[in-house]
Amino acid sequence: MQRDEDLARGLQQGHRGDLVELVERHHSPLLGYLYRMTGGDRSLAEDLAQETFVRVLRGIASYRYPRPFKPWLYSIATNLARDYYKQADQRHTISMPEDPPPDESAAPEERLIDDMQAQQIALALMNLPAHQREAVILRYYQELSLAEIAEALAIPVGTVKSRLSLGISRLRELVLERE
Amino acid sequence: MMADERHIYREDDEQRRLRALLAEDAETPEETEALLETVRFIRRWDAPSPTPQETARLVEKLLPELPKPERRHPGQWWPLLILRAEARIIRREIWLASALVMALGVLTTLGINSTNAATPLTILAPVVAAVGMALLYDSDMEQVLELADSTAVSARLLLLARLTLVFGFNLALGLGGSVALSLLRADMLLWPLVMSWLAPMAFLSALAFLLSVVTGDAIAGAVFSLAIWGMHVFVRSMPASGDLSWILSLPGLADPAARPFLFAAALLLVMAALWLAGDSERRMGETL
Question: Whole-model pTM?
Answer without folding.
Answer: 0.58
